[in-house]
Amino acid sequence: MKKTLLLALSLTAAAYSAQAQTAAPAAVGPVAGPAITFEESKFDFGSVAQGATVTHVFKFKNTGKTPLIVNNIGVSCGCTTPEWTKAPVAPGKTGTITAHFNTTGKFGMQNKVLTIESNATAGTATVALVGEVKEASATASTAPAAPAKMKVKVK
Question: Fewer CB near the terminus (10 Å): N or C of the chain?
C-alpha cells in the first residue's frame, strides 16, 4: 500500500512539474507580414514666420517579411500635404514620406498629424510636425509709405 501511495504521489508531482514548464520564448525577429518602422515619429520645426512652408522627410523601413505598400496618408488639416513612396517597399528596404506644412493663416503652437494607411500588420501609423508659427514681421513691401514732402506757396 505504501508503495502504491508513493508511486501515485510521484506520478502526480511529475505531472504538475511537466505542466509548469513552458517553452523558451522565440527570438524576436521580423514579423510575418509587412511592418513599418520610422526613424522618427515627430519632427519639431522650432519657430517659423507665418506664411512660410515647412517641409520634412520622414524615413521609414519595412521591418517585416513581405512587401510594404503605403495606400494613403490622411492629414489633420488641408494646410498639410504629403508625398510618399508609391512602389512596394521590400523587406529591409526604406521609403519616405515628405510632409509640406503651409503656415499661412496659422499662429501659435501647431501639431500636424499624418496618418499612414498601409498593409502593415500593425494597422495605421502616425507621424507629426510640431512647432510654433510666429507673426510675420512687416517687410518693406508691406510697410506704409513715408509721407511725401510738399512745398506750398501762399499768395
Answer: C
Judged by DSSP in three states, 16 sits in helix
First-last CA distance in the chain: 144
* pLDDT tens readout for residues 20-64: 444 444 445 566 899 999 999 999 999 999 999 999 999 999 999
Q: Does domain 36-134 have CATH number 2.60.40.10?
A: yes
Distance CA 118, CA 122 (A): 9
Residue 120: exposed, middle, or buried by beta-carbon count in 10 A (0-12, 13-18, 19+)?
Answer: buried
Helix (H) or strand (E) holding 18: helix 2-20
Ranking 13-17, 36-40, 104-108 by mean pLDDT, the lowest is 13-17
Rounded CA separation 116/60 (Å): 11
Q: Across the strands, what pairs with 98? A: 57, 83
Q: What is the pLDDT of residue 136?
A: 82
Judge whether 11 and 17 are in contact, CB under 8 Å.
Answer: no
Q: C-alpha grid cell for residue 119?
A: 498593409
pLDDT for res 45:
97
Strand 125-134 to strand 108-118: parallel, antiparallel, or no bridges (unpaired)?
Answer: antiparallel
